[in-house]
Structures
1.
Amino acid sequence: MNTVTLMTDFGTKSGYVAQMKGVLLSHANAINIVDITHEISPQNVREGAFVLKQSVKYFPKGTIHIAVVDPGVGTERKAIIVPTRSQILIGPDNGLLMPAARYLGDFEVHEISNPLYMMQNVSNTFHGRDILSTVAANIIKGVPFDQFGKRLFNFVDLDFGQGIVDNQTATGKIIHIDSFGNIITNIDGDKIKKYVEYGEKLMIFIGSERKEITFFKSYGFARKNQILATVGSSNLFEIVINQGDAAKRLGIKLDDEIKILFF
């Protein structure tokens, strides 16, 4: 059975997600549809890119991911297919797919331009239903990627970068704030753990804040409402509050720089 995932900023109040699923089920057989999330913040391409990248690693070979966070829908922006070493990504050419593609490796980018593989009447505002879902169904049917459109070498990229860690400091930036208000950086957790033991203190400089905090194995080792540092499930260095919202309390924004001093 073919697995197709959906990730959007549509929410669940409207019927948009159901319409995409209806198209998939109408055009291809034996599909297992998995919802990654439909609660990406509206038009927040960076948030969607982070969530997609962190999700694809847990899906089997051959999975097709349809991602729709698309503030440029109906404009000249392209729709694309990105086959990788093991999975296939479909979405708008706005950087949304690129961190996941880079993680999966050996990717190509193909434009979706052939009307044979779209709905007969394509709306100006709902390409997720009228283009992306029908393309996914046709990929399942075995249509080669080059039949959908030409290969692209100039596409919109998005890269979260990688923090730098040495034996005294770490520097990076904030790349994601999750629904709990946890502040997630681009600093590799394994590298941090080479220099810092659980229970040790760190000095962090983030936004306009300078704070001394403790590095814990998990949230529950800290007091309620205590600010702490940890390595989260994405194996990235995080700053959190046990049972609280760290981003709100500290006034942190995406792309804020962070510096960490090890004692």
2.
Amino acid sequence: MRAQQIAVIIVAAGSGMRFKSKTPKALAMLKNWPLIHHSLHIFEHIPSIHDIIVVGRKEDLRRFESLHSRFKKIRAIVPGGKTRADSVKCGLLALDSKTAMVLVHDAARPLISQALVLRLIAAVRRHKAAIVAVPVKATVKEVDAKGWIKHTPKRSYLWEAQTPQGFEANLLVRAHQRKGGDATDDAMLVERLGTKVKVVMGDYRNIKITTPEDLCIAKEIA
């Protein structure tokens, strides 16, 4: 990998329909800070991270502008696309040409730690592509369209993917240029290139805020 300039794309462009709020979910309050501030604070204070790109809905961008004054590493705040993958691609277009590694993170996951991010960066440096994830605790069933169980996967092989996810910049750009079909995370797009993606231990506290109930849980464990 070339000179280690690392950028972070924070995706905050979801409609947040299940969150049931007129306020953008990324700006919902958690412990006196908007959700997005929590992860921005972590990335801002990691020396090896140079740039941060925030991707939001076009109609919300004005509400994100105040982030510039608080977080000096923010390079750009850009409008996203119709899907999450489209929004990440919008963030990629705003990268500095010297960027060697890109971390992609959901603004709706505010409870990351510096240690988690550093584990991920170390894994990307070694393997080119890596994600944080946690082992699944419950038994998972694969079912058909009518609700009948088709298969019970071996639980020890199942991990729940989280963000951030990290990739060599050129690799992630190629993955998004070739994207097709439904992809629920960036690792899925990179896998389609035939590239192996390393799994790094995440954190069970690194929950995604999707509903108002999730925010209540986050307030208890923050």
3.
Amino acid sequence: MKLKRIIQIIAVIIHNSYIPALLKGGLYQGFLKKGCTPILNCWGCPLAWYSCPMGGLQHFIALRLIPYYIIGLFGTVGMIVGRMSCGWICPFGFFQDLLYKIRSAKMKLPRWCSYFKYAMLVGAAIMLPYFIGEPWFCKLCPDGNLIAGIPLVLSDKTSDLKALVGWHFYMKAAILVAVILFSISIKRFFCRTLCPVGAIYSIFNRFSLLKLQIDKEKCIECESCRMVCPMDVPIYQSSNHIDCIRCLDCVKVCPTKAIKYEVR
């Protein structure tokens, strides 16, 4: 688990460490921005080095073009590790892990809520951009507001951006606040219910080269795996669950060593 935390911190630094933005403002728009990171990380973040694949997907769909590069990125990562990138290198996922550590009343999320993310993917990230020509998921994304919208408005020295602040900014801020509050009480609330990137990768969990295997003869169904799982997945019931982010915490805590991972 300590290794995972170290990698998550390194991933945050790799994705968002454009220090000149802190000194002179603006965004990094160099060569690296032409490439996408495999996880959700807003293009508009002043510290971001790379583009967001979900923003890129909507951009091409809005232009009525086939996003070959984005499809290839999702397909390659998904076929190799499934949803593992969500568990190890996603800054917003790491942020939710930290939020859940705050002492509070904890709640279980009904299993059917996990399917909301597919509606978000199809509706806000595909259908609306295609028919309206605007990246609607980006207009709602709490990660975008946390690392891009709010920092840009607060750092605006000319007041040009502050003058544009209106109902949409406050709506997006309200979504962010709601996600933060839910994430304090529910494990990775956004990842499980609303993230379209997670929805795409979850499709590959059954087919990825990296898989989890459960030895039914050793498993005593003690739920140790579920207790440490950042997605609250009963992995002993479904090793290819759509919400499994391959963090491997369950492998380490299983008292009978019934859970193993393998690369096919």
